[in-house]
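Predict the 3D structure for this chain.
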Amino acid sequence: MTTTSLAESRQLIADACRVLAARGLSDAHLGHVSLRVDAERLLVRCRGPQERGLAWTTADDVRLVDLDGQPGAEGELDGWSVPNELPLHTEILRTRPDVQAVVHAHPPEVVAADLAGVAIRPILGAFDIPGAKLAAGGVPVYPSSVLIRDRVRAAEMTAALGGRPVVLLRAHGLTSAASSVPTAVLQAVSVDTLARMSLTVLGAGGRLVDVPPDDLAELPDLGPGFNEGVAWRHELARLG
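Done. Predicted structure below.
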């Protein structure tokens, strides 16, 4: 990446962190977003000397590091520390060449639904087409509730993720992997929406019913210009 594109990528990650906070997926100081830069380096949201939480992330909080958490350029970690769970990001980037961006968030309703034994299922159709298709493919669960602080745990989580875009982390949160930062965030938003809807239906005394396969098959792919472009501009506009 050029210096200019690095600057743009830092701002993109900062915006993504703010979107996660605005959506309530990580409304405190926990959670992080990363983006692959090259074969050995990534940009990741770090904690600085004036840490205030995801909602106030700036481009300066996004630092360039290598896959082992060392500075990716001179001065990159002066005054900043990498996330404790950096291996969560780097192990996916090491093993999934199709993935460019990783999001780790702590959505309360997603955690609650999983703890209640409620799987993320395709109960919605045209309400959220990308979310319906994501859920129809299955959302796996990593059953440990520990921090993903080393490559052993990260490898376990990555194995649970497999080739899927999202994995739930029991009593912890979720990890979303995608070809871009906006898609990784929007996947997390869709999973959160499905969890919220599931809990609402069950709380009203209803039962969860998957959208029929014929209906799922008829849902169109509206393309990246809409699924990511319009959706991401909407998320940024919500930030004000």
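The first strand starts at residue 32 and ends at 36.
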